[in-house]
Amino acid sequence: MWSWLPGSLLFGSSSMGGARDVGWVTAGLVLGASACYYIYRLTRGPRRGGGQPRPSRSAEDETDDSCDEILNEDQLAKLLFLLESTNNLVITERALITLGNNAAFSTNQAVIRNLGGIPIIASRINSLNPSIKEKALIALSNLSVNVENQPRIRMYVRQVCEEVLADSLNSAVQLAGLRLLTNMMVTNEYQYLLGSYISGLFHLLSVGNGSTKVQVLKLLLNMSENPAMTETLLSAQVDSSFLSLYDGQMANEILLRALTMFQNINNCLKVEGQLANRLHFAGGSLFFLLYGEECAQKMKALTRHHDVDVKKKALAIKTTF
């Protein structure tokens, strides 16, 4: 049976700050008659006076005057029900886009959690469709900004790590997953969950494009500030190509982050009194790359870098050798 599924709650862009991709799902969709009718009534509201169904105030209405308007709790509940009830890829993607946009607002971060929306959204990480997987990760990333949501997202961290390392290099899924992990690692509480994935992250840092490098560095920077993670970071087996991050011609947004990570690790080692304990780390580890002769020469060269901030960080690190 062909039915028309209203799209009054399905709108938006695929990430915060992106262009709003307005598009209503108004194509005829082959759905079970009873399910289609129920979703139709759910999103459109009750009939009035025996006439045609009259829609309740829609998401389009809510955002007609300002892109900063947000959906109310009732609309979000309907949207989550829709997401949980359908296997249609178009509807699923539109619902996740809308939820991701609304999860950018602090009020709705709590509302979606209280409606039980986090596991509903997270279940779509398992999708074989890359776009749906990406939109689910974006929504969770926005939700993870709220610290009260983090304990509920925590259980998906290892799964997200697996997805990030297994997906195509520099893909949208990979970047969305890295952003979610970065948000989750802002505090020290869940950083230990990434312990077995550190070498994989350093591999991405070496082989990824500029966007991937920046995102991995943001994640590792959070971890490098935590003395409890210092040994885990320095023990990771890292390819020697990692040192290319400290080449003078490297883009500043990458070079400065890589230098800051080195500074953070230095500071943590000083606190722990481990700077001279080379025997504790195996050959081929990050420790031997950072504190080896090749890196020392690169720091010396960077003290003559044209950028003042790069020069300052390199001079501070050079005193370590």
Summarize the structure in words.
With 321 residues, this protein is mainly α. It has a domain at 219-321. The chain is built from 17 helices and 2 strands. It has helices at 33-44, 59-62, 73-85, 89-102, 106-114, 117-122, 130-143, 150-153, 157-166, 172-184, 198-207, 210-224, 227-235, 252-272, 286-290, 293-302, 308-318; strands at 2-4, 28-30. Strands 1-2 form a two-stranded antiparallel sheet. Helix 16 packs antiparallel against helix 17. It is elongated. The chain starts with a strand and ends with a helix. Mean pLDDT is 82; it is low at 1-68.
Low-confidence runs of at least 5 consecutive residues? 1-68
What is the element string, with H for helices and E for strands?
EEHHHHHHHHHHHHHHHHH
Task: Return the average pLDDT rounded to an integer.
Answer: 82
- Biggest beta sheet summary: 2 strands, antiparallel
In terms of quaternary structure, the protein is single chain
Radius of gyration (Å): 24 Å
As laid out across the biggest beta sheet, the strand order is 1-2
Which class do the helix and strand fractions yield? mainly alpha
User: In total, how many beta strands?
Assistant: 2
Percentage of residues in DSSP E strands: under 5%
